[in-house]
Amino acid sequence: MKSSLLIITMIIFLLSDISNSQINQPWTNSTTMGYAGGGYLFDIANNFRLSSMITKAKRGIYFSSINYPVDIDGSSILFNSKFRDHFYSFLVKSVNYGTFDKRTIDNELIGEYSADDLLLQFGYAKNLEKRNISYGINTGIFLSNIDNVNYSSLTFSPSIIFFNGPIKTGIAIMNYSIVLDSYRLKDESINNSYLISASSKVKRFPIDIEIDHEFFPKTKSSISRFSTQLRFKENIFINLGTSSKKFYKQLDLGFIKDLFYDIGCGVTYKTNYGNYNFSTYSYGYLFIYGLGFQLFF
């Protein structure tokens, strides 16, 4: 049984601001938890959030499972492949928020209801001939349900990546949406954003670093992320990341607490047949844990 506080919190997150839905949260993928939302340009299990990265991946299938606090759980299945000079991916992401008590204003129990999100996404990418540039687009449908009240929208995320020697630079429009069905009468389009990322290998050290900045025009807010990937013996990767806090509207923390409010870490074990991943993420003062497995074929 969930507490009244939890029910109120979930209603605020799910109904009052659709931009807080899991389509803007990367935590259905275990590797991205370790990067605290970054790692868009890393080659190892980056979840193809920038579609252009499909051109740098091995063909395979990736499974991920996330355990949140208060019995919330998320999972994803990702498939990527290549046909001639064209690259494709297909992603299924889901979050189940659990079952809640339905009560009257007098606190009488009259039943139960559930809440869940589902994202079906198709990605396409291609390399420009004779240039170190790849471009692509992720497009899909996002479905959300709360007590048989539905929300749905189409999403589009075009991106382009420049591979300039040791530096990779990515530019993308994330989650531009067209609402098909809304919770309420007013438009509830997903909070789209503009993303710029830069990644590079550190000379003389087995470290990749990435800096991301994401701007949300609807709320006139932004998130900055710093991600690192440490390589050990070519098959063990330590993933670390932090980002500016996402609850800046509700909390007023000091600079140091702000810096570490969203932080993730994880380890990826790479083999010739696939990758194994374990990650954790500090969700404010709570922790989320995730497991992932990627199979090459």
From the N-terminal CA to the C-terminal CA, the straight-line distance is 43 Å
How much helix, percentage-wise, in residues? under 10%
CATH architecture: Beta Barrel
Rg over C-alpha atoms, rounded to the nearest angstrom = 19 Å
Number of helices: 3
Low-confidence stretches: 1-20
Indicate how many domains the architecture comprises. Answer: 1
SSE arrangement, N to C: HHEEEEEEEEEEEEHEEE
Fourth-level CATH superfamily: monomeric porin ompg
Strand elements, count: 15
Strand order of the largest sheet: 1-2-3-4-5-6-7-9-10-11-12-13-14-15
| Residue fraction in strands | over 45%
Shape: globular
Largest sheet descriptor: 14 strands, antiparallel, barrel
CATH hierarchy, class:
Mainly Beta
Mean of the pLDDT scores?
82
**Which fold does the CATH topology refer to?**
Porin
Structural class: mainly beta
In short:
The protein has 297 residues and is mainly beta. The chain is built from three helices and 15 strands. The protein has one domain (4-296): Porin (Beta Barrel).
